[in-house]
Design goal:
With 692 residues, the protein is mainly β. The chain has four domains: 94 residues, Immunoglobulin-like (Sandwich), CATH 2.60.40.1120; 100 residues, Ferric Hydroxamate Uptake Protein, Chain A, domain 1, CATH 2.170.130; 119 residues, no CATH class; 284 residues, no CATH class. The strands form seven sheets. The protein has a 19-stranded mixed β-sheet that branches. β2 and β3 form a beta hairpin. The longest helix has 9 residues.
């Protein structure tokens, strides 16, 4: 997996009449590191250069009797597959023809759907929370949720996988991204939304493959500082749901960091180091409801400091033209005061790790360059994609065997909450409930099919559209193997020694159909933009491992809109270079309403689950609010004696749109059909950046 971010450079050598030229010598040189690779064209005139890391290259073709051809300033992005045809003219080797190359707008050799987020995109666009994964929403079919969650084509955020320099960065316990590091340490990353190649595994959703910066033959570095303050921010959406509206909570956040890279030995050995430190101070409001304490129900405000140092260090060594060695060290720690948890723990233990080798995942991808010009391609994919079962599920099942809740009543000890007139009689300790992992469970998987096209318009614009269909099998869900007789649930459980016996099983299903459209205009005439639109439908008969049906005798009755199903999604990014060295950039995200489930708030069918719906109402039949968020970044640049200085102002959700979430579907609740929270309101961040 350590080389999935690298790619082979393929192409052919021809003469002026397009006839192939076998035996031509092909030499490619990395402009930044000086590494050189050499190969020869085969009998058909084709060549292949293996395992090239992302970067800037110069390609040279030589053959006796022909002029030397040089393609300069070739940019190879992460996981990019592009074919370069070199035409040689008759002449002497001493005569050279140099042509400046441009990165192809249309990829003619990759069928997978996705987007490359370049260095320029990362550095120019506003990134809320400095979470690089939010830029993934610029890929058609991908949606970004609060926090670091991203998903695509009807999959859950748990189904996504993250790779850092080709190595897994997934948290195996809860299935998500593990840790983080400075956005400024990222060179670029690719977002594969659908139909990934066989080199990727353990994911049926989004694949994000990140390449971090490396040292080069030149010493370069950066320092930066960002600050947020509650006086600049709007009140949170949740505060608007409380009457009277409480004052804004205190916030002080400072982020300081930088990186430095350069050569240890020219053309051979390089170093790179990045460090970022986040210091955030917030306030939390707590009300103590206990009746017999000093100042009962008096609100208490306490400060919540948070610090997060992040470090990454790399050394790259060119052993030869065919071999490289990279050593990387990464540190990411969080310090939160006041958790009440301390001490030391033994984190490692002896255990067996057994891999399942029976999950066969065939994949087929086809690309057709329609007229051979590289401007129009048709592409299609079909494949099977397996997920991974995260560790918290078997861990919960194991812990359920070891712990039982026990209640003890001591009449001689006063109840600090006062007399309880509703105290139950009879046995104090009820029958226990437990959890287990189902027998015969399998690895969840998805079958995916895509067909579409990509077309270059002019020199800088491309348009793509793809139809995507995904069918999920073996998805996680829960059922009660001690399900009661619905006529008398207290006395007629099959095993009276237990209440609920939760079995986590892999029998759920999902259905996704979507049209994914992408438009990209590269930088020209002082502006660039990206647009991603998705029209889709996602249905599921389960949501996650802890999902129970209304009636487990009719699990198919749970088929309905997924909780993250949104018919329309639109995202876009725009960068403008204005006069006086001012750069303006914006990221906009919008979607139609998400569904939520309506319940009666009672156990109508007496199965001990309070998830019953009104008669005739399907799952997730109601709709919440749509979402719209616009982020803005303004940068003013200066250059003094070769040192670049950028003054930066960022505003996230600049229109302060109240994007409500968490709608309460309980019809007995005082907040029925009302939101219980919201996405971020307007946040402002100021900073500066120094490049040298």
């Amino acid at each position: 997996m350590g080389s999935v971010h690298r790619r082979d450079r393929v192409g052919s050598v021809v003469d002026e009449q397009k006839a192939v030229l076998p035996g031509a010598t092909i030499t490619i040189r990395n402009i930044d590191s000086g590494q050189v690779r050499t190969t020869s064209a085969d009998a058909t005139g084709n060549y292949r250069l293996f395992g090239l890391p992302p970067g800037r290259y110069e390609l040279m073709a030589e053959l006796s009797g022909f002029r030397t051809a040089v393609r300069s300033d070739i940019t190879l992005t992460v996981a990019q597959e592009a074919r370069i045809v070199i035409a040689l003219r008759i002449g002497t080797l001493e005569e050279a023809i140099t042509v400046t190359a441009e990165t192809p707008v249309v990829e003619t050799s990759r069928s997978a759907l996705g987007t490359t987020i370049t260095t320029a995109t990362i550095e120019e666009l506003p990134i809320a929370g400095r979470n690089f994964a939010t830029l993934s929403q610029l890929t058609p079919g991908v949606t970004s949720t609060a926090g670091a969650g991203i998903s695509s084509s009807g999959q859950l955020t748990r189904n996504s996988t993250f790779l850092i320099d080709g190595l897994s960065n997934d948290d195996g316990s809860v299935a998500g991204q593990r840790g983080g590091f400075s956005v400024d340490a990222i060179k670029e990353f690719i977002v594969v939304s659908n139909s990934s190649a066989a080199e990727y595994g353990q994911s049926s959703g989004v694949i994000v493959s990140v390449v971090t910066r490396s040292g080069t033959n030149n010493i370069d570095g950066r320092g930066y500082y960002y600050r947020r303050d509650d006086s600049w921010d709007a009140s949170t959406a949740a505060s608007k749901l409380v009457s009277p509206t409480p004052p804004k909570s205190r916030l002080e956040q400072q982020i300081v960091g930088g990186f430095l890279g350069g050569p240890i030995r020219q053309n051979r050995m390089f170093y790179f180091a990045s460090y970022e430190y986040t210091d955030r101070l917030t306030e939390n409001l707590v009300t103590a409801p206990t009746a017999r304490i000093y100042l009962p129900n008096d609100p208490i405000v306490f400060e919540q400091p948070f610090t997060n140092p992040q470090f990454i260090g790399k050394v790259d060594l060119n052993l030869s033209s065919a071999n490289t060695l990279a050593v990387r060290y990464r540190l990411d720690t969080d310090t939160i005061i006041g958790t009440g948890i301390g001490g030391t723990a033994t984190r490692e233990r002896g255990q067996d790790r057994k891999r399942k080798d029976q999950d066969f995942a065939p994949r087929l991808g086809l690309v057709w360059d329609v007229n051979g010009s590289g401007r129009t391609v048709l592409r299609g994919n079909a494949g099977v994609y397996y997920d991974q079962v995260f560790l918290n599920i078997p861990l919960n099942a194991e812990n359920a065997k070891k712990f039982v809740t026990t209640l003890i009543t001591n009449p001689g000890y006063p109840d600090p909450n006062g007399p309880n007139p509703n105290r139950v009689s009879g046995p104090v300790t009820p029958s226990p409930s437990t959890v287990r992992f189902g027998d015969g469970n399998r690895t969840p998987y998805t079958q995916q099919y895509t067909i579409g096209f990509q077309r270059q318009i002019g020199n800088r614009l491309s348009v793509a559209a793809d139809l995507v269909k995904a069918r999920g099998y073996g998805l996680l869900r829960s059922m009660d193997s001690n399900y009661p007789d619905l006529d008398d649930p207290e006395r007629r459980r099959p095993d009276p020694n237990f209440q609920r016996v939760t079995v986590v099983e892999t029998k759920g299903n999902s259905w996704y159909t979507g049209l994914q459209v992408g438009i990209e205009k590269r930088m020209s005439a002082r502006h660039s933009y990206q647009i991603a639109y998705t029209l889709s439908s996602t249905e599921r008969n389960t949501e996650d491992f802890n999902f129970f049906p209304v009636d487990q005798r009719n699990y198919d009755g749970e088929r309905g809109p997924a909780s993250h199903d949104s018919q329309h999604r639109l995202s876009g990014a725009l960068t403008l270079f204005l006069p006086w060295d001012i750069q303006a950039s914006t990221v906009i995200a919008a979607r139609s309403s998400l569904p939520y489930n309506e319940t009666t708030g009672a156990d109508d069918n007496r199965d001990t689950q309070f998830n019953d719906r009104p008669a005739g109402v399907g799952r997730n039949a109601r709709l919440g609010a749509p979402l719209f968020q616009a982020d803005l970044r303004l940068t003013k640049g200066f250059t003094v004696r070769g040192v670049g200085l950028d003054l930066i102002a960022e505003a996230f959700n600049i229109t302060n749109q109240k994007n409500w979430t968490g709608y309460d579907g309980n019809q007995r609740s005082a907040t029925a059909n009302k939101p219980t929270g919201g996405e971020i309101t307007r946040q402002v961040q100021l900073g500066f950046r120094v490049d040298f």
